[in-house]
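Quick start: load a record and inspect it. Here is Mobile element protein:
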Amino acid sequence: MGTKLGSEAPGHAITVERNMRFVGIDIGSEKHVVAIVDETGKPLRKPIPFSQDASGYERLRSMLGEAADAFVAMEATGHYWQNLFAFLHAAGFQIALLNPTRTSRFAAEDLRRAKTDALDALGIARFAQQKRPAATPMPDAATLELRELMRLRDRLVQDLGDRARQVHRALDLSFPELTDHVRDVASAKATTLLVVCPTAEKFRAADPKVLAELKYDGRHVIGLELAKALCEAAKTSVGRHQGTPYELQIRYACEDIATLRARIRKLDEDISQSLDRHEVGKLLTTIDGIGDNTRRA
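Running the structure step on this input writes:
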């Protein structure tokens, strides 16, 4: 027979089978680290970092295996856990949202002097294996809502990636040197520039001082150094396709990217608000040491 998980947080105990895997995730602002241990606390693989984006989430999903045989634990760190929690919950995983103060005490009891993301993830996995916290509950209605929101977000992220690839292809023909100066063609800086000057020919005719004053996120400007560098690079560009079709392809794709970026940002807010409305948001105000400001961070 299996054993029952305990009660780190309000929720339902689950039955642990012999082949249960305990997953600890150290939450970071730009990347997370995952560690997996078996029922004895033995690591099943070395801790591995993964990015906070669609490819990173899919990499994690492939590492975790069947949701029924895994129990995931993570700390409620700022707001950085929320998208990952929604993704894993929609995929069918049981997840315990932990108080960082409690896991820190556990690490101290474990006499772990070093502190790295990898060791933190392993410590969280062993905390789950030894303390058996209860899964953080979410009502079925909330799960369905989050699943639909995450599916919509995934589609928008895929659309944004498609548009970015269109821009790359057109730039390879019209102004390949641009990415030497602005590497991410889906960034606000790149799309702002390319809507105004979609080809090398347009950059050659542009006034660097005018380009320098363009605002690309409502606050920051392109700057004279970058504007001059792009105009100079355009003068010797090997791109030979400067006509209207290439201008329109790049300009339209960049406009689409800007729209998709804004929609994804709004969806992230909706996902956060959905979590706040349900048990996860309520839980965070009941965990010792986590107040309303942390919950809404």
